[in-house]
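Field: sequence (string)
Field: structure_tokens (string)

Example rows 1 and 2, in order.
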Amino acid sequence: MKLTKGQIEELYVFTRKHYVEHYDLQTELVDHLSNGIEEQWQYNPKLAFDDALQVEFKKFGVFGFMDVVEKRQKAMSNRYRKILYGFVKEWFQLPKLLTTIAIFILFFLVLHLKQASYVLMGLILILGAVNFYHQFKRRKKEKAQKLKKGKVFMLESMINDTGNGVSIMLFGNIFNVLQIMRFNFSELNNYWLALIAIAATLPCLTFYITAYVMPSKAQELLEETYPEYNLI
């Protein structure tokens, strides 16, 4: 006996009810559950679908699908970090290396100013305002696409959400900057100013990559990870 399309759809609903949000993991679990149910039917063809489903679900233990979800999240997080590292590495190779150096020099020169803290604060406020405006527009577009498609892959969710998280973390530290606004960076020697400039450059690159570059490359990245992405 084989499962019907209706029963397969019931399995998708079942996984969603048990807190499996992402379509790629839902599909993996549905495939696992359907194979188990069909194997049960080979020995007991009269077994009801719901009963067979409960037998298969109990095999996942007390916590249900949680362990599977955590393992997939860990694996996909590793995948995300590798992708992020690849993009970051590009900014330390020509021709993007020139832009990285320019950002470093900009920070280094600003830190020499007596009013460096105020200049940095102004830059943070301007960049923060511009970023939140673009993030608002992008989130609105993503929400419309999600409603239309109805299926979200785990890597897709990470690409869309991580940029927001990084931006909140970066611009959310404005209060900390306020606390040191009176500090005169120009009194430090060039060695310390260079280290501070490097420390400022790296988060800026990470922010730009996660918030703008990776979302713009999302389609390509998802097609590489999920061969079935364009089929749904």
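Row 2 begins here:
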Amino acid sequence: MRKIAALAAAVVLVSGAGAADAATRGAPQPHDVTPILPPGQTNPSIADGVIIGSNVATYTASGLGPAVSNPAAPAGSPERYAPATLPPGVTVTEAQALGVLARIKDNLAAAGLDVDDVISMRAYLANPPGQDVADFAGWNRAYRQYFANTDLATRAVIPVPMGTAAPAPPILANPARPARVTIEVANLPVAGWLVEVEVVAAYR
């Protein structure tokens, strides 16, 4: 993947930086794209924030949900947007999230970008039918298949779990840690969607 080595090196440089360090660094240079990561961690899942210089062009993707994966499932059901057969322990939310992240990768490619260019992410999760809360654990497992799955100190790819399977190499190795928020919502715009995600990516 392009820019991975350079991005990993840049992330390592700020892996010990926290909010206090950011306050003393002064205004960013025009082309800076600098994640501020939790101090003392070599494998954080997200950044505390991202510094963007004034000359950095960005791309904002609209919210994307999962595509129909199982047309045999009832219309408007979550199962319609997940493969008919799931690996052991993979939840419908997790399966939908994997589909959404793959769609985001394609969306970014059409704009000349890749997942390592993502600097911020907003995820919306709806409760699976019969559940009182959204499946945050399933979403986070899917997220690690595409983001934040390399050690910032060693640059080694970190095995991650899918469902209840033992950790294994991720679908896509990517050191990027975007600034991220995950929000539980009452419903999403398409009946059956449990996941919708929007991202901002930077041209570097």
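free_text_note (row 2): Confidence is low (pLDDT under 50) at residues 4-23.
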